[in-house]
Amino acid sequence: MDSTHDGYITDVAYIDNYYEQLSPLAINYLAALNGHLPRNPDDFDYCELGCGNGLSLVVHAATHPGGRFTGIDVIPDHIARARGLADAAGLTNLALYADSIADWVARDDGQKFDFIAMHGLYTWVSDAVRADIHRFIERRLKPGGLVLVSYNAKPGFSAREPLRNIMRRFATPLSTNPLERAHLGLSYLRLMLNAQVPFFRLNPELAKYAESLFDKDPHYIAHEFFHDDWHIFGVDEVAGAMQNSGLAFAGTLPLWQNHADIDVPANVSGLFNAQTERVTREVHKDFLYNTVFRTDLYVAAPADAAPLPRTETLAAMCFRAAVPATDVQFAPLAGANQLSLNTPLHRTVFALLQDQARTFADLAAQPALAGHGRDDLVAALTQWVLSGQVRPTLPAPLPPSHPVIAATNRALLAEAFAAGDRDGALLLSPCYGSAFWFDKTQALALAVLADPAAGEAGATLAELMKHCGLSMEEDGRALDEEALANLAMDLSDDLEASGALTQARLLGVVG
Ligand SMILES: C[S@@+](CC[C@H](N)C(=O)[O-])C[C@H]1O[C@@H](n2cnc3c(N)ncnc32)[C@H](O)[C@@H]1O
């Protein structure tokens, strides 16, 4: 028999995922890019609703020491796993609750948040739970606070609705077990795909999407399609609901969709530029691009509040070049239109951010940029960020060797090796307030390099391998000191040769 909470399956765990877009730093940049003041990175409260196994929260709590983090999820096993990881990392700024959102709506403890984030929640819950999400926001978001929400979007996902419906119609009467239902639903699709039925012949894009589902984890299939609720929203519908909760639309992902000079192709830009209301522009873009999924930002502000100048909202945010000068790509930026980074202004901005992080205000005050207008400077900087070659950074990041970072990396590594079916391991990037995936063995070697307590490399490796539950035997014999030292050297050589070390340095994972 399956168990549910308000129609949401609670007896099947969701897959492990990390989402950089939920990082307070990333949310702050998205807000500032759209003319909204970022929250104070040194002192803030952050809540993730439906936080699942807590991977994102653990990464963000470890890398944002100025934040106090809260995670809420109704599945106790999810919270138990998140807690296990947070405890192993020794995090003191993360509180986790195996509660429903309704529990928090009913509780009147006065706790309020600068950030409320939710990923993979809004579409899959009942109207009643969505109403609780809105009540939670209304009661617990600070003035000027930011909400990041993602959902299956119109019009792109609407076309996929028949696939969900037919899988459920077929599988639900045959089993009460959500994972079995997922397998049964997929087997039905396989039959229809192989038979090349008219539905798939006439809808080749849906056939492609259906094929892609066979590569997914059954736990994902169960959570995507087999809850009672699955609501596909237009951005205007979500914006309307948020407006009723006192929030205004404040931006969207991917980042290029916030750059009005490249977010639509030139042949239709005239039509779009006549459209000044942002949410309406977003609705048109969703039609243009057949959007299937949206991640949007809202701010606690009246819907008609005018955005502030970017020069003001970006002023205190820090930026740094994320590639060496020798590797810079000046090619026109991808987007619906093309923008070049190969101008004297772009080159000067990049050079000034090459060896040190600077706030926008500091950058703008540099003599090398005298004579350039502030708006041009904002455009050049944000275009660099769009290209991924300059990144927002935290103003005072912990060093990669900091005990909290090292302990969290160890916990993430142990978790990755314990999850036998996962190829990669996450390692923290304290300066970018996030984490990046590495091959597990390379992650182990990087953790040896980054370990602050590192003495002799072989001994550090042995200690980490033990921590991760890895065998230290070869041909049935325990590796001795010399063998461990050689292994550490081989791993280190492989890091250099494969480019993983350079990559890890660029990403701020090792110093
Ligand atoms: C699809 S998972 C997404 C997990 C994670 N945010 C991610 O994207 O990987 C949705 C999560 O929301 C939680 N959830 C669903 N309904 C909830 C409710 N009413 N209160 C609290 N959590 C809920 C589920 O337990 C589940 O972990």
From TrEMBL:
Source species, domain of life: Bacteria
Entry-linked InterPro entries: Methyltranfer_dom (IPR025714), MeTrfase_reg_dom_prd (IPR018773), SAM-dependent_MTases_sf (IPR029063)
GO biological process: methylation
Any one Pfam family match given in the protein's UniProt record, by short name: MethyTransf_Reg
Keyword DNA-binding: no
Domain (Methyltransferase): residue spans on this chain: 45-152
Assigned keywords, A-Z: Methyltransferase, Transferase
Segments forming domain Methyltransferase regulatory: 217-299
GO terms, molecular function: methyltransferase activity
Cell division found in the keyword field: no
Residue spans crossing the bilayer: none
The protein's name in its UniProt record: Class I SAM-dependent methyltransferase
Organism: Thauera sedimentorum
